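Help wanted!
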Amino acid sequence: MNKMAFGQFYNSNSLIHKIDSRIKIIFTILFMISIFLVPTNNFILMGSLFVFTFFIVLLTKVPLNKYLKSLKQIVFLLVFAFSFQMFFRNEGTVIFSYNLNFTWINITISIILLILYILFNKYLPLKLLILVLLAILIIYILGIPMNANVINNNPVVIRIYKEGIISGSFIILRVLTLIIFTTILTLTTKPTDLNNGIESLLSPLELLHIKTSIFAMMISIALRFIPTLFLEADKILKAQASRGVDFNEGSLREKIKQIISLLVPMFIVSFKRADELAVAMEARGYVPGEKRTKINLMKLKFSDILWLILFIIVLVGLIILRVLI
Amino acid sequence: MKIEFKNVSFKYQSDFDVIKDLSFVINTGEMTSIIGPNGSGKSTITKLIMGLLVPNSGSIYINDVLVTEENILNIRKNMGIIFQNPDNQFVGVTVKDDIAFGLENKCIERNEMFELINKYSTLVRMNDFLDSNPENLSGGQKQRVAIAGVLAMETETIIFDEATSMLDPIGVEEINKTLKMLKKEASKTIISITHNIEEILYSDNVLVIDDGQIVAQGKPIEILSNIELLNKVGLDTIESVKLINMLEENNHKEIIEELWKLTFNM
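Answered by r_m:
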């Protein structure tokens, strides 16, 4: 139960973990700008940024599968971006072309395959992989010349251009580097440190009479209560299950009903909690926006400055390159 | 800290008064237990003392000064309260942060903060858990952290608002130990709302509240031996008092004398 911690933080106490959270936030932003400053299709520069990122990944001492987990969520995006570049570019040198024959036989086979997939979808492992294989299979079947009535007299030709593949790969490399680098930030910084860092970075806004401290207090309380609310939700789920609510079965309509039976008590409990917490905070002398001292002091170390300088050099170097090229 | 209620009435949005024309005095350095059935207005009294609620009529004096909206923030700095639900008053992400929360509000220097945290977390025996998250602590431990948080603010008055009612017997025992120690070693004014007989036994004064009014007031012995009164407000008493009562009905005078002595160590 206690494992329901929030965020992705992985404590391996590495060199990167020790960097001040503010510096980490700043250099993540600097690096993101750097990534977007790399001229399109410049694989050498993008590749070196990727290798640089990978080097930092090794420094974090976080198991690589943690990074793979965060990449898993964007596989679809990557495939989509790549296919888009590959199929919808229509200039340059053709390296591959493919005729699609829309005859009755081809289309019928394809539709049967699709129906089979939809029917057995529930029982298949590795759904995404099988879907991709199915798409390839259908394209292949459509490619087989058949002696039958053609529906469409203009044959559809898929042409793949060299430029499309190149820019597709470049985009994949760019997104990969970006995602891996931001994952470094969330894997190596505690949510509270991240919050403190953001508060400290936003503190100049106090001069404009924007109370950033209230905002930071809100975030920190939200972080504090996420595990508590998870436990609460679990309790309510069990309580409802013991009254006969089945959260796994049923039609969409029933599912919505079941979710409401979770949400309503959840809301009531959360509001009650919020109310009591507000009273408790007030009783302990909290006045929103008033001056307070802080127990968690953030101190810049010399090494933090060196890290910052490193990323500034990367950014400035890229800007100079951009101007020169 | 002397707390005085003069003809205080209070109602929430509804029409009926939760507190009806209530007057009492709590003297400096005394421990007072407030007992009464659920919904009798006990918690409302503590919120009125803390200035978290404002009376509809009547007045509250603290150290002989009338409480107003202007001076309440200052007065509140000298009071701490521990609520019923240990989860809903844990503000910090770690034990250390939570104890520090009140200190941060008081704008105490960082070094001094660490000293206070160390001192009071040791006092409630939570000093080994300073970096623990609340979800890894038991209810009793969380409640002790809440006590440390209030103690660290070094207030004159501490209010326990049913602080033990959501805890298991071990948790209750832990809090009782801490309370006893506080009473003995620190000369604090303690107000405790409780259903716990042991807690009532070692307080100096007991206020019995029913339906927003005081129905009885006195030493623990007087209150706990008044079975008729306790039955009326739906409260229990100690087993030995029940026994004495049974013997009384059957006229066993000498045994009764002995038992009284044993019960209250006279």
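OP: Thanks! One thing I noticed: Confidence is low (pLDDT under 50) at residues 1-5 of chain A.
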